[in-house]
Structure to design on (455 residues):
């Protein structure tokens, strides 16, 4: 184990989310609802990273995430790395794949969309186009580029 | 939810569109039938649209159905803060189908999800208004004898005009050629041009009306609204450039017909009205037959 990996305390069992761009770290926290998670959580941010400049890392003890949960991360930090740890060993490197549909976490950019004016859960279709990824609101049909997405 | 709802023209396949048009042609022959006898249709207009509401209500009455509802939000329970979800559930206790117009975009898709009875979208903000698109298609087919291989000129507000956007989508099944005529501030958004390119639909763009429609089969005029212009001096300068006058039609094709979703402001000079190529009033009347066909389809009525 290199000294770099030791900057944040080692984890016995749980999930490590690494290589999160520093400015996306707290959005990942919010997407996974970690603010209400009762397990031990270690968060590091603005760590030096050759890959993403400044990076963030989150370690959650004794908790496994479903794929639909970790896939939400793909929306804002597609290059983040998810490692599942058991007895200090990485037992699974989980690839991130963007789901075809995203519920709840994204806010529609259209101020006159029904979802911004009534208690309606947001729902977006993920369109993988040649020139990038676009989210289309299921209700008002407004499209927004992935990099302009508003996370609730 | 009821799968029979009509929210967007994209909900209908080419075959479904053609079958609605056939059904409308039957209603045009005999619009007075009793197929909705004993049925109650709700018309919920959360924003006023007298033209669309009267058309739907006439369609219901001529089919022998009854109507409940409201014609603007001030008289509805939503003015007391009731959610759309609650209004829809309440009304669906009484009605067999709901025709709804709402100022919020996506309201109709949402209503269709929560409603136990079919929803017919009569306009949700600037989003969708499928009965308008279907009556446009009906008018095109009726005047040209076909929907295939036509040259269609779209004029006016091509940037915000939902009717022209929906028309492009719906006509994409029928090998059209488009000509977009609009001021730079109101030109066709890129996403619809990309849609045309992807579907091998040829189109050209020009900024002057003049007689640029001489090769067209359909001249589809839309309202140019003052509010759409950032520069009001520019509006004053161009508003008459897009006004169609009778003499401009001198060299147009004999089968050309002029459509407009109405109401018009000054896009079409009244001197065009008596030209046989003017079809916009008949187009509005076609809305009745289309709406009878839509009501019959969503309620699975045998004709
Ligand atoms: Zn929306």
């Amino acid at each position: 184990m290199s000294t770099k990996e030791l900057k944040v305390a080692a984890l016995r069992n749980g999930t490590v989310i690494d290589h999160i761009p520093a400015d996306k770290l707290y959005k990942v926290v919010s997407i996974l609802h970690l603010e209400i998670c009762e397990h031990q959580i270690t968060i590091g941010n603005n760590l030096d990273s050759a890959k993403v400049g400044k990076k963030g890392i989150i370690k959650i003890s004794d908790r496994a995430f479903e794929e639909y949960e970790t896939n939400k991360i793909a929306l804002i930090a597609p290059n983040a790395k998810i490692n599942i740890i058991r007895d200090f060993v990485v037992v699974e490197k989980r690839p991130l794949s963007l789901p075809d549909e995203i519920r709840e976490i994204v806010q529609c950019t259209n101020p006159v969309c029904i979802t911004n004016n009534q208690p309606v859960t947001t729902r977006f279709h993920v369109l993988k186009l040649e020139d990038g990824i676009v989210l289309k609101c299921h209700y008002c049909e407004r499209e927004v580029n992935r990099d302009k997405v508003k996370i609730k | 939810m009821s799968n029979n709802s009509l929210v967007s023209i994209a909900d209908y396949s080419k075959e479904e569109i053609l079958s609605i048009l056939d059904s409308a042609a039957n209603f045009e022959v005999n619009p007075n039938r009793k197929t909705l006898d004993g049925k109650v249709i709700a018309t919920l207009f959360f924003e006023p649209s007298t033209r669309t509401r009267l058309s739907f209500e006439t369609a219901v009455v001529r089919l022998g159905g009854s109507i409940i509802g409201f014609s603007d939000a001030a008289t509805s329970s939503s003015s007391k803060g009731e959610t759309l979800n609650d209004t829809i559930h309440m009304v669906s206790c009484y009605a067999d189908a709901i025709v709804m117009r709402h100022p919020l975009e996506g309201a109709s898709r949402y209503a269709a999800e929560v409603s136990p009875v079919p929803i017919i979208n009569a306009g949700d903000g600037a989003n969708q208004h499928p009965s308008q698109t279907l009556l446009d298609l009906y008018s095109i087919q009726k005047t040209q004898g076909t929907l295939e291989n036509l040259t269609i000129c779209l004029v006016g507000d091509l940037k915000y005009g939902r009717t022209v956007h929906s028309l492009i989508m719906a006509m994409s099944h029928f090998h059209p050629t488009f000509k977009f005529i609009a001021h730079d501030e109101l030109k066709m958004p890129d996403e619809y041009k990309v849609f045309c390119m992807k579907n091998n639909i040829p189109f050209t763009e020009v900024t002057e009306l003049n007689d640029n429609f001489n090769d067209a089969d359909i001249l589809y005029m839309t309202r140019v609204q003052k509010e759409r212009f950032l520069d009001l001096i520019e509006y004053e300068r161009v508003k008459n450039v897009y006004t169609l006058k009778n003499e401009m039609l001198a060299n147009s094709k004999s089968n050309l017909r002029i459509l407009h979703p109405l109401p018009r402001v000054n896009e079409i000079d009244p001197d065009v009205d008596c030209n046989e190529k003017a079809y916009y009033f008949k187009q509005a009347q076609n809305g009745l037959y289309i709406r009878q066909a839509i009501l019959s389809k969503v309620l699975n009525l045998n004709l």
Remarks:
- The interface with chain B takes residues 110, 112-115, 117-120, 137-143 of chain A (CB under 8 Å).
